[in-house]
Structures are given as structure tokens and as C-alpha cells.
Amino acid sequence: MRIDSLSGDRRAGAFRRLASRPYARARVLLFPHGGGSASYYRAWDRSAPWDIEFFAVQYPGREDRFGEPVPDDIQGLAAVLAADLPLDGPPVPTILFGHSMGAVVAYEVARHLTAAGDPPMGLAVSGHPAPALTRPGRIHLGSDEELVEELRRTDATRLDLLDDAPLVRTFLPMIRSDYRLSETYRPSPGVRLRTPVTVLYGDRDPEITEAEAQGWSEVTDAGCAFRTFEGGHFYLDEHRDAVVGVLAACARTASEKMSVPWPSAP
């Protein structure tokens, strides 16, 4: 889990456009980790190519949605997010990307869209075991002190923030809720994806093993690719450009499959 800073940026709905891309041929939706928010992805736009538009997802209960209740489970959260789709703009292919808790949120959104007859053109997941191999946990049931110690142990946020008692009291309910969502998640039977899946993870990430990563191949009939990076659970902080490159390649492949025409160069 990682705590991100609050933002005063208020917009309707769950999806935050990082920057306008009037010539976009595809879009990528970015789902944050547990304890995360849309602001985590703010800098990713600097690595984005001109023809791919990135949107960061804002979960309820944080930043400009701070007062909104968080659903009881991952499936409920995914249903809320899927209800905000489709996005405004031309009908271009959509890729979903989620890190850590965001991986299973993105997966469940993909299942919602598939059941509705409008599946995404790609799903990329990062730093999380396959849904059927999700690790149970009881951290969300611990005391506030135990929860803070867990954040210290996992280097989830800056230590000076954890020493700020009023700030910690503000964030802890949201952090506990995200731990609950993650630790109690179990995939429900039913919809199988028809979407290609790309799995990314750090080679020193204690939250996922190679076998747990390989398990993602069981969720789709459209094939599964794997990419390993040097680093731990937040390897993407050091490899942002490379990760954005992987997502852009997925998006461009999707646009070619849909025969989205190349626009005139800006």
C-alpha cells in the first residue's frame, strides 16, 4: 500500500485525463494500487506518445472523491467504475492497466465490459498474483498502530508522513479499506476474458512469484504475455518510461486491429 497526496482538482466521474490528445488513436486507463489515487500517474503523461491518451482512475474515498463511500468489495468497486464508461470522445480502442490492487480492479472492470458486449482491447496487470491465486490477509483487522507499522515495514509511504499523527488519522480509514478490499478479494465464477493480457512485475517483488504471475494466463482465451523488470513492488517508479512504452505498444496493436486510421500529424 502507498499513500498519495491529496489533490484540489475536482472533476466529475472516476476518470482523469492526464492531457488532451486530439489525435489519439487509442486510450489507456490507469488503475492505482491500494492506498493510491489518480495523482500517482500524473507524471506518466510526460512519457506518453502523442497518439495515445492516458486517463488515471480516481477511486472513491480519496482526493477529490474523499467524502464518497468505498464499495464493500472489489467487484462492487469495479461496477462503480465500469458505470462511468464509455468516455467522451471518438470510439477508439481502450487498454486497461492496473498495478497491485489496481490489477484486479482493472480485471474486474474488464469482466464487466466483456459481459456488456464491449470488451477492452487489452488488459495489462502489474505486481499482483493471478485472481485465483490472490493471497488472503488480516492486516485490515489490526489496530491503527499495527496498520502504521505495516506501512513502515513495507516502505509504503514517506516515513515523515507516518509521524504526522493528524494526517495519519485522516488517511488510515482509506488505507484500511483498501487492505480490506485486497485481502478479502476472491474472483467470482463466470465471465472469461476474450482480451489479450500482459503481465508485468518486478524480479524482487515479494508480493508476486513467477508462478503467481503465470496464473494470469488462465483468465483469458486471447493469450498472455509476460514482462519482468528489475526491482521490487514499485519497480515502475524506476521504469516508468519502459512501462509506458509497453502500454503504448499494446494500444497501437489494438488500434491496428480495429483499423483506426492514422490522423494527420499535429
Automatic annotation (TrEMBL):
Highest taxon, organism lineage: Bacteria
Q: Which InterPro entries match?
A: AB_hydrolase_fold (IPR029058), TEII (IPR012223), Thioesterase (IPR001031)
Q: Domain Thioesterase spans what residues?
A: 27-246
Signal peptide as annotated in the record:
none
Report any Pfam family annotated for this entry.
Thioesterase
Report the family membership.
Belongs to the thioesterase family.
What name appears for this protein in its UniProt entry? Thioesterase in siderophore biosynthesis gene cluster
Q: Which organism is it from?
A: Streptomyces globisporus
